[in-house]
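Query structure, 129 C-alpha cells:
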C-alpha cells in the first residue's frame, strides 16, 4: 500500500492541470507533476489526466485516458476575468462531467502565466517579456 490511497489498489485518480505539459519552460513544479502522472499511469489504478496538452506529449508521458481542457474563449468577458476563471468558464461542462465520474483522489496542479495573453486588463504594457 502507498500514500495515494490505502483503501484499495483500484482507486480512481484524476490528475488535473490547466496548463500545457508540452511547454518548453519546465520548472520544478511541472517536472514533479509529470513524474506523478508517469507514476500514476504505471500503477494498477484507474488513472485519468485532464489538461490542455496535445496528443503527442500525452503518448510520451504514457497517458492512456485523457480529458481535454480547452483554451479560454478570449471574448470580451474573458478579458476582465483572471485566467483561471476564464478557463473555468470555457470548461464548465467538462468540469461537471469530471465531478460525475466520482474519483477517489484528485491531484491538481495549477499552471498559468498571467502575462501569456495580451490585451487583458492585468497585462500591463509596462511589463517587459
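Result returned for the query:
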Amino acid at each position: 500500500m502507498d500514500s495515494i490511497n490505502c483503501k484499495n489498489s483500484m482507486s480512481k485518480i484524476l490528475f488535473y492541470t490547466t496548463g500545457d505539459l508540452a511547454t518548453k519552460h519546465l520548472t520544478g513544479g511541472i517536472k514533479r507533476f509529470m513524474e506523478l502522472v508517469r507514476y500514476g499511469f504505471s500503477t494498477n489504478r484507474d488513472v485519468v489526466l485532464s489538461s490542455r496538452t496535445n496528443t503527442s506529449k500525452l503518448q510520451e508521458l504514457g497517458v492512456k485516458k485523457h480529458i481535454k481542457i480547452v483554451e479560454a474563449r478570449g471574448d470580451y468577458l474573458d478579458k476582465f476575468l483572471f485566467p483561471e476563471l476564464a478557463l473555468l468558464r470555457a470548461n464548465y461542462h467538462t468540469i461537471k462531467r469530471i465531478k460525475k465520474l466520482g474519483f477517489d483522489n484528485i491531484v491538481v496542479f495549477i499552471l498559468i502565466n498571467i502575462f501569456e495573453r495580451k490585451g487583458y486588463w492585468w497585462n500591463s504594457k509596462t511589463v517587459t517579456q
